[in-house]
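Researcher: Quick test of sequence recovery. Tokens follow.
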């Protein structure tokens, strides 16, 4: 059994040798075993390989290392995040259904929701849900699944479907990287599906990022800059000259 596990790991390491990732489901199909077997193989790989958001990656790949930790980020650019959320709140209308993304950038936005009537907040972020739960007049929809402690958020295969069934007026999206050519990205692969579903479903799509994210490229790509109607930032974002790009709102 150990020899077969070693053979599977060697095969997967060959696939990952050039960098990049492979989905757990694809890895199981490639090796002719179950996803649980691949999980056991990864656990027995002595740290050579790891799972990030359902995808296998070599642990020594610096581009895909799980570098984000929410506790470390909550005090980073705190004043800027408050200014960004103040500007973002100006787009909200009474009766809206809002999608609020995970991370720390949008958490100050929750503190401004009490000024509006008949709001519904949809989120997959536990920190956002905890803050919204203290607002008695705001209805909360928490999307569940497997909990990821580093970002205090949930992920599941059917989350996209659940989001698309909801009537979302405004999607407030955060990101860890915004690059003119490489698009908008984040650290964690499990965040891609809910972000993309919210962008596809919402009447208005708003990207909220501080200047430290501008020019960065993170492992999990999820959108083009032109996929957003509005970008709220304190950094320098250049819209696409062909399309005119999103409206840029300075904080």
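Model:
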């Amino acid at each position: 059994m150990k020899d077969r596990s070693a053979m599977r790991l060697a095969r997967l390491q060959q696939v990952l040798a050039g960098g990049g990732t492979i989905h757990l489901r694809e890895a199981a199909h490639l090796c002719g075993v179950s996803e649980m077997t691949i999980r056991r193989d990864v656990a027995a790989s002595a740290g050579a390989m790891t799972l990030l958001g359902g995808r296998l990656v070599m642990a020594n790949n610096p581009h895909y290392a799980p570098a984000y930790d929410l506790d470390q980020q909550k005090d980073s650019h705190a004043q800027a995040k408050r200014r960004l959320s103040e500007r973002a709140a100006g787009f909200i209308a009474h009766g809206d259904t809002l999608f609020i993304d995970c991370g720390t950038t949008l958490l100050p936005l929750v503190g401004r929701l009490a000024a509006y009537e008949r709001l519904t907040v949809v989120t997959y972020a536990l920190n956002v849900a905890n803050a919204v739960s203290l607002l008695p007049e705001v209805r909360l929809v928490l999307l569940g699944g497997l909990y990821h402690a580093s970002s205090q958020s949930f992920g599941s295969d059917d989350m996209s479907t659940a989001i698309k069934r909801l009537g979302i007026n405004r999607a407030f999206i955060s990101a860890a990287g915004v690059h003119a050519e490489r698009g908008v990205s984040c650290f964690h692969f499990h965040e891609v599906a809910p972000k993309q579903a919210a962008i596809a479903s919402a009447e208005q799509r708003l990207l909220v990022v501080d200047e430290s994210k501008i020019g960065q490229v993170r492992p999990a790509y999820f959108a083009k800059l032109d996929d957003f109607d509005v970008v709220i930032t304190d950094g320098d974002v250049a819209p696409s000259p062909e399309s005119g790009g999103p409206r840029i709102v300075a904080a």
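The chain has a mean pLDDT of 87.
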